[in-house]
Fold each of these.
Amino acid sequence: MIYQRAQYAKGGAGRLYWDYRDRVAFSYILPGHRRVVDMGCGEGITLEKLIKAFPEKDVIGVDLEQENIEICTQYGLRAVYSDIYNLALPSGCFDACICIDVLEHLKRPEEAVRELRRILKTGGRLVIVIPNDRIFFLARLAMGMVKEAFYDAGHERQWKPKEVKGLLKDAGFRIVSGKSLPFLFWQTSLHYIIAADKELL
């Protein structure tokens, strides 16, 4: 098991990039987004940053792993256990949802995206970040991170930006922005970030 906080504590280029990725994701959260959920919050690193970046907002984390919820609680973070396919959250209760490195783990992504749409208000924003597994593998090898390079992260599939946009459009979202990180082209980047707003069907 590779723990997020242990990896983050190592510092270096990995931590600098993690912080950069989160800042870009946060840039799509608008002043009017009062209630924000970090879906698949893991051990709470990004959740912690969200709370610090937006102290005026109501921020909560959600994760399927009970151990992650316990870790978040240890750090004084508000996080709840729930299944992304059947969230124990009211409909239309959030203005924005951050969903980083989650989609690739899902066996039923269409069902999950519909559920995320349900908990968002009309006009609410969904920010999805997907990894480029091939580039991550090469980057980790180049940095001497052999254990991390060959670690089975449990990804169900490798998404492409066009596929994610199609998934969101089919679920009733309007694509606002799409951007590769940290470079211009997806083929050479580590992540792709998509912001989409819930449309009224």
Amino acid sequence: MSGHSKWATIKHRKGAADKARGKLFARVLRQVEVAAREGGGDMEANPTLRSMYQKARDSSIPNDTIDRAIKRGTGELEGVRYEAIAYEGYAPCGVAVYVEVLTDNRNRTGAEVRTAFSKNGGSSAEPGAVAWQFERKGVVMVRKAVAGDDDEFMLAALDAGAEDLEDQGDMWQVTTAPSDLAKVRTGLEAAGVAIESSDLTMLPTTTVALETESDARRVLKVIDALEDQDDVQAVYANFDIPDAVLQAVEA
């Protein structure tokens, strides 16, 4: 797991997600809307919509709000038409960064993303420059406190169809093929495991170690600036920060 994911977990634990709840809701609902537009409003026939719906429920978004987003996507309600675009670039220390956006104005968003890179020590790159360093996966996060016996949990995850499990401190990361995300989540829940979150993500195939607090702060400055952009849905990076350095940054 890249250090970026560790950092995201820490920010969530410290309550940063609650502080940005309005922005979080808007981002997730936009993802629901686009999934419905691209694959239809039937969750049984549209696994991406099913995953986005579950993500919205995990974020405590009310059902009627999610339903309206689906109807905007299918055209039953009037709404803005969003376009999915990926931007690529580098943070300091050669860290690869992959940015996913949903926008109704490609020119505006492109300028904002490029500015976020350049003003914070990073640089934008051409399409394909860093995408090859990531792969699309489903990820289910489970708190160890509710997972029960380690061996039993591992067996339950593998029986559900998981590809891999990783120890992330107080959390288990369960990795799946993108198409198996809903199936694995359902299988774990059927085994009595409470799910913290599940989502489609981009995992790095290789990582860049950030061994000093200075380097970690420089890289995280770029990541935070990108995540602050309204149209940005997700930022993925291939850095790995040792726990001791991450604790110093967190402090």
Amino acid sequence: MTMKKALILVDFENEWIDKHSDYFVGNISSVIRNTNRLIDSCRRKGYKIIFTTHVEKGSDGAFAPGSKNVKIIPQLHRKPADILITKYKISPFYKTQLEKRLKGVKRIVVAGILTNLCVRSLVQDAYDRDFDIIVIKDCCVALDKKTQDFTFNDLKATREEIEFMNTAEFLRKR
């Protein structure tokens, strides 16, 4: 019997790539390329594909409900059959359908924006729910390299079972 797997893509939203946004993370074209390779590979292998978006209720600025900036980055290889989870707090598990959508899934592969916030929260909460977790480092984005490195190092130091790899390594091994 094959293990059920899911790819969770955390908050790949237009807000992060909007040059006029206070939340602009810079040019992430290489991250988008890597993430599309990851999506395509996982899709071929029968993974559940789950996207999350962060929305701030009552906001009329960044992350405003219904705004173009909370939509998934259009360059990503998203399909209508992919699951979309809208979240209103940092954790994709908090008061969402994520846990229900992961019923029967044992391994999750994680990529997303911001590494030190919503991605980290997902990984921590998934760890506490006994998922096997692989984080794809070059498909994650923080506001700077120091924060990115610290987050990966801290998660690894405190949760040794979590695997961390880059896209190319994941594609070779999985």
Amino acid sequence: MTTTKYKRVLLKLSGEAFGGKADYGIDSPTLTMIAKQIRQVIEMGVGVGIVVGGGNIWRGAKAEQNGMDRVTADYAGMLATVINALALQDALEREGITTRTQSAIGVQQVAEPYIRRRAIRHLEKGRAVIFAGGTGNPYMTTDTAAALRAIEIEAEVLLMTKNNVDGIYSADPSKNHSAKKFDKLTHLEALNMRLEVMDATALSLCLENKLPIIVFDLRAPRSIERAIIGEPIGTLVSSGKEND
């Protein structure tokens, strides 16, 4: 059996990851690809918690620009993450992985409420746990939810997946071909350089709790597995002392 560097991880999947190459909705082949990768690492004995975004279904910022109340728009976005969570749960269960979805907002007919101790127990039993509903609060992104849940479940690393971007760059590589890719950064460097790793609240949480982050391209072959076994992939953001 392959030796893993991490025994418990938090995987952040953006809403765009669910859409594949489309701008909207859920792409079934992409969902199956994600589920197969997650199944592979769970079978390696790794506990996997997953935070999902909802940008493939709802964009709260755009709705606010069109005049919608910000709080209402954010709650609508939380419901979009529940849809993605249920789709991922179904895909994982079709792969034979027992899965539980926990939501930070009340949707008892389709998901458990978020309870930290119950989530940890599920992970100890080898189940995948999907965290939906963000933090349950408006004005908070799913990046912040990912950092918070990672700390709460005592994950050893936060895996931030990107679509067709293989790490953190000094500028948008799709617009600036001279953008420099970083192999390693400290949390403080990422904050000071205002790099688009995640929002500042989430990054500050990781900094304060010394939680390393690996940013990588989800579509790269065996990307999640490679991150978990410690292969160099994407960009590592850490305190500068661990995970070197």
